[in-house]
Specification:
Structural class: alpha/beta
Shape: globular
Strand content: 15-25%
Strand order of the largest sheet: 13-14-12-15-16-11-17
Largest sheet: 7 strands, parallel
Radius of gyration: 30 Å
Distance between the termini: 48 Å
Oligomer: single chain
């Protein structure tokens, strides 16, 4: 008897063993999907991880059906799944659920088909065609359509029963459009038995056009030197960091490296942190690589993602995949190069739900398994990546000058604390910023305003008694969204009607406090009514097409003032932006997290880099109440090295990455006293093994989300510690805690390498 270890798309640890009936023993293989029973009455589609002869010491249920004739999940992918599950302490079922498109997990995928038209066999002869045309002499419209069909399909080239030209397939829509007829006319011809309709699978994928490698631009001297250095470093290192300032032409280097990989018959995975970035990069890369490039991210429909997955398993896969973090799960048979652009971005880290993996780390591991090279590119490296490069674990290539010798933008710090005291601020805008915006708009240039908070106002408040509405499910104030006239919780998504009066004192003097992108848009529209304004945040980009529309309109100059959250800081390239306004640097700096200055520097440096990209030095107005902070001056002087040197010693002293690994243990329960006692027990168990490496338990900044109370335990582990043993102890503490019946409904999860 044969047995199969099967991964199920369920949040359960480990795999499940099933017996393989004799009739299926030759059909079941590793990486294939099988239908298996689970529980008393349920069935699931699982993926076979292994087929073996080892009889388990329990009664096995049999595999019910095999869905594939070949692997749907390749061996290398299964190894990556296992690594993610082990390293990030996530059930492998969660990895499976995240990796495969839904259409491959539930059989709901249906191929897209289109109706095509062909000539009935009895009329595929020169004389028979004449008979058919004569038969239609009194049905002029049908005769016209038939003549058009014969011309389009080349059946009009028949000599006897042999066509002089290759017969072409014609869709019904194509025939209707070309002959200006209706489908009823085509149906009449099929009713007569002259034409036949049939269905053809056409797919949903964009074909991408022809390959034009001649569109690859020549590299500048600095770029060519960096390109040569990357290739040299790849001889010694599997991972190389390309540290290039904004607008230094990193993308052009990527294009040359991709072209080289294709010449070597290798595939390329090009990861970007945001879907928004794929809009611009797609247009640029398709001009060069055409149909050899595919795009994969979560805003594509599930059916589209299934078709890309199947294409990657076919004999004619995409050579280049451009995608967001989920693209790391796609199957590759000949992977040679992985590019992680904007590698510092926190968007590469999956937060919820499990698995809480980092796509950069997963991509490096995938490349290692495939024997491929990894290039990490950014203007503002993460501390961990830069440390790995400085200490020799990764190769390091620096590109320190902008393309065409453009200057980095001039950054002017504006002390808004002083301006507010003197009542010189116009809402969130300083006089200096408004003068620069007006000048830019008058000169036909473009402006970007950066405010890293969406909505109209972070909260509303009663002016009389100070009442602030809070979410009933979460410990947060509600954000006002004026256009929808709703208060929204940005944690659980629950919405509330804006109150007409204060429920505490019945005052009607309720006003917004602070400002989000929506309010910025409102106020700047009042000041510059002639401006063509767009807003780019989560509220305006919920569809795949919304990204493209906003970015294309700004690129084409149809809009000239773009307001946005961190989305606009991520590598977008606009030719005419001369002014960037960072409206409130303090909201990024005053955050209770050891990475606050690192992330603030990255965001400010990146959004500043959108300015002055073609032919003119840009200007950036950085508004802050604390202009003397070292990190502000580091942004002004574009001095990443000073930031790194300042923070690295703090990290070493206080035991933070890159010198220590962090694991956060989160416990959640509906009752605060229950989660509190569970967290105390859990932490005491951990202290038996880890001692002072354990901090907490504490309440996080937001201690209740979706009606669940939360506690957090921090585990600090020195680099070099036996992580396998660490994971064993963490799981043991979890198991021992859950043995207490009081904690039956307790939720526990681990966040490894949190951001």
């Amino acid at each position: 008897m044969r047995y199969a270890d099967v991964i199920l798309p369920l949040p359960l640890e480990g795999m499940f063993t099933y017996s393989v009936p004799d009739g299926l023993s030759n059909a079941v293989g590793r990486g294939m999907r099988v239908v298996v029973p689970f529980g008393k009455s349920k069935t699931h589609i699982g993926v076979v991880a292994e087929v073996h002869d080892r009889k388990p010491d329990f009664e096995c249920k049999p595999v019910m059906a095999v869905l594939d004739k070949q692997q749907v999940v390749l061996d290398m992918q299964l190894r990556l799944w296992q690594w993610i599950a082990t390293y990030y302490m996530s059930p492998i079922g969660d990895v499976y659920a995240a990796a495969l498109p839904s259409g491959l997990k539930d059989e709901q995928y249906k191929p897209r088909t289109e109706t095509y038209v062909t000539l009935h066999e009895k009329y595929r002869h020169e004389q028979a065609l004449h008979v058919a045309l004569n038969m239609l002499s009194r049905a002029s419209q049908q005769q016209k359509v038939l003549i058009e069909f014969l011309a389009l399909s080349h059946y009009d080239s028949m000599e006897g029963d042999t066509p002089r030209e290759q017969i072409a397939e014609i869709s019904r829509d194509e025939l209707v459009n070309a002959s200006h007829c209706t489908t009823a006319t085509v149906k009449s011809l099929t009713d007569r038995g002259i034409l036949i309709l049939y269905q053809r699978e056409v797919g949903r994928l964009n074909q991408g056009g022809e390959v034009h490698l001649e569109h690859i631009h020549r590299l500048s001297t600095a770029q060519q030197e960096a390109y040569n250095q990357i290739l040299f470093q790849f001889l010694r290192k599997n991972v190389v960091l390309l540290h290039g300032v904004t607008s230094s032409g990193k993308t052009e280097l990527y294009v040359h490296l991709m072209a080289k990989a294709l010449q070597e018959k290798k595939q390329v995975l090009y990861l970007l942190p945001e879907i928004a970035l794929t809009v611009q990069i797609t247009q640029r890369l398709q001009r060069v690589f055409g149909h050899r490039m595919g795009i994969y991210h979560s805003r594509y429909s599930d059916a589209e993602r299934v078709e890309i997955w199947r294409k990657q398993l076919s004999d004619n896969p995409y050579d280049i995949i451009l995608g967001a973090r989920s693209a790391v799960f796609l199957p590759f048979r000949h992977l040679g190069l992985v590019i992680v652009d904007e590698e510092h971005e926190t968007s590469f880290k999956q937060q919820d739900p499990s698995p809480r993996y980092h796509a950069r780390s997963a991509a490096i591991m995938l490349a290692s398994m495939a024997g491929a090279k990894t290039l990490l590119g950014t203007a503002t490296p993460s501390m961990e990546t830069y440390h790995n490069a400085k200490t020799g674990k990764y190769g390091l290539v620096t590109l320190s000058q902008r393309h065409h010798d453009m200057q980095l933008p001039e950054i002017q710090v504006v002390d808004i604390k002083d301006l507010q005291r003197r009542k010189m601020m116009n809402g969130p805008f300083s006089p200096q910023l408004l003068v620069a915006v007006r000048e830019a708009l008058n000169n036909g240039e473009q402006v970007i305003l950066f405010q890293n908070r969406r909505g109209f106002a972070p909260m509303i408040e009663c002016k009389v008694c100070g009442w602030v509405p809070r979410c009933q499910n979460c410990d947060v104030s509600l954000t006002l969204h004026k256009t929808m006239n709703l208060l929204t919780c940005h944690y659980c998504g629950y919405t509330y009607t804006v109150p007409q009066q204060c429920p505490c004192c019945e005052s009607k003097e309720i006003r917004g406090r602070g400002f989000g992108t929506e309010k910025v848009e409102d106020e700047i529209r009042d000041i510059f009514p002639e401006a063509h304004i767009a807003r780019m945040d989560l509220d305006t980009t919920r569809s795949k097409s919304a990204y493209a529309r906003i970015i294309n309109d700004f690129s084409a100059g149809r809009t000239n003032l773009l307001i946005g959250t961190q989305m606009i800081s991520k590598g977008l390239d606009f030719d005419k932006v001369s002014v960037v306004g960072i409206l409130n640097a303090d909201s990024m700096l005053n955050y209770p997290d050891f990475r606050a200055y690192e992330h603030a520097f990255m965001m400010m440096a990146q959004v500043s880099g959108r300015s002055g990209r073609k032919g003119k030095r840009g200007r950036v107005f950085l508004q802050t109440k604390d202009p003397d902070l070292p990190v502000i001056q580091q942004v002004v002087h574009h001095d990443y090295a000073a930031l790194y040197e300042g923070l690295i010693e703090e990290r070493r002293t206080f035991r933070y990455p890159p010198f220590y690994h962090l694991v956060y243990v989160y416990l959640k329960h509906a009752h605060d006293d229950v989660v509190d006692s569970a967290a105390l027990l859990f932490s005491s168990l951990l202290r038996q093994w880890f001692g002072d490496r354990i901090l907490g338990p504490d309440k996080p900044a937001v201690a209740r989300v979706k009606a669940l109370c939360i506690r957090k335990i921090v585990v600090k582990l020195e680099v070099g510690i036996d992580l396998k043993k660490v994971r064993t102890y963490l799981r043991l503490a979890h198991q021992q805690t859950m043995q207490d019946k009081r904690y039956a409904s307790l939720q526990v999860y681990f966040d490894v390498d949190p951001l």
